[in-house]
From TrEMBL:
Keyword Membrane: yes
Transmembrane segments: 59-80, 92-113, 134-163, 183-205, 217-245, 265-293
Protein name (Swiss-Prot/TrEMBL): Formate/nitrite transporter FocA, FNT family
Keyword Transmembrane helix: yes
Gene Ontology annotations for the cellular component aspect, listed alphabetically: plasma membrane
Domain of life: Bacteria
Protein localization: Membrane
Location (main, coarse): membrane
Topology term for the membrane: Multi-pass membrane protein
Protein source organism: Mycobacterium terramassiliense
Homology family: Belongs to the FNT transporter (TC 1.A.16) family.
Length: 300
């Protein structure tokens, strides 16, 4: 993903409804490090979704890699928090270790389904994408991310080694905590997760400097992990690791987590968190930013 950080040139054409309005004419130049307007940010995020939908096979591969990066973040979060007895410190360490995963995804141009949920809705609202194309983007992105995450945790589970013993106990504890939450708790925590995460994604596209982009990309996953929220692809890592460690190494604990649709099932958690993540990324991030951009343009 390449983001042009050059300052846009002022134009004299009459702005239309979907045109990003220039700064007042008394300013002769824009600061190249000044954040973009909300309207320009919305345009960029929506354009990202349109570009992904135009190249479905490339998008699928990007989703595979993105899922693996998220699972890698989950692994690192468990590693650094193993043996830490103070809950707040353990959460802080998990967030610091996990945060780089979203930086890798956004900077490398790979894909994460929760970001595509918000970006795709903006593209639909701007009439750059049909509802059918949006549904395709969600389905392909979700499948790709889940498969990519599973490939990564399967390799780690088969490897065993440093991921047994105390690490396996920590993984089982975290996985059981996420899988065992009541329906409404898990759903609402999933809403909060993408409220954090996709706001950070939008700020990534609003920023002009590389340092600011990376800071926003880091803070989103850092915040949702230390907040104890639920993310569908991260949970494939957090629940999948104890399940696969137990599959390859039967002595490793799994703390009652199951594969199916039971109360502590992985598939149940995927279903609930997908819905919650969708609500958080669309109704609480994409829609408000789109409304703000429309209102600002009408006032010019």
């Amino acid at each position: 993903m390449t983001i042009d950080a050059r300052a846009p040139q002022l134009e004299t054409r009459v702005p239309t409804e979907d045109t990003v309005v220039s700064l007042p004419s008394k300013l002769t130049a824009e600061d190249p490090f000044e954040p973009l307007s909300v309207g320009a940010m919305v345009d960029r995020v929506a354009g990202m979704a349109v570009e992904k939908a135009a190249h479905p096979w490339a998008f699928f591969m990007r989703s595979l890699v993105g899922g693996a990066m998220v699972a890698f973040g989950a692994l690192l979060a468990l590693v650094v928090s193993t043996g830490v007895k103070t809950p707040g410190v353990a959460s802080l360490l998990m967030g610091l270790a996990f945060g780089m995963s979203f930086v890798l995804i956004l900077v490398s141009g790979t894909s994460l389904i929760t970001a595509d949920m918000a970006a795709g809705l903006l593209a639909v609202l701007k009439r750059g994408m049909s509802l059918g194309a949006y549904a395709f983007l969600i389905v392909v992105g979700l499948i790709g991310n889940i498969l990519g995450a599973f490939v990564f945790v399967t390799i780690c589970g088969a490897a065993g080694g440093p991921y047994l013993g105390a690490f396996a106990e920590r993984a089982a504890t975290v996985g059981a905590l996420k899988a065992g939450q009541p329906f409404w708790t898990a759903l609402l925590l999933a809403v909060v997760c993408t409220w954090f995460l996709q706001t950070a994604m939008c700020m990534f596209f609003k920023a002009r400097s590389d340092v600011a982009r990376m800071a926003f990309a880091f803070y989103g996953p850092f915040a949702f992990v230390i907040g104890g929220t639920q993310h569908v692809i991260a949970n494939v890592g957090f629940l999948g690791l104890p399940l696969l460690l137990n599959l390859f190494h039967p002595g490793a604990p799994r703390a009652g987590i199951s594969w199916g649709f039971g109360h502590d099932g992985l598939l149940t958690n995927i279903g609930i968190t997908t819905v919650g993540n969708f609500i958080g990324g669309t109704l609480f991030v994409a829609l408000p930013f789109w409304i703000i951009a429309r209102l600002q343009r009408r006032q010019i």
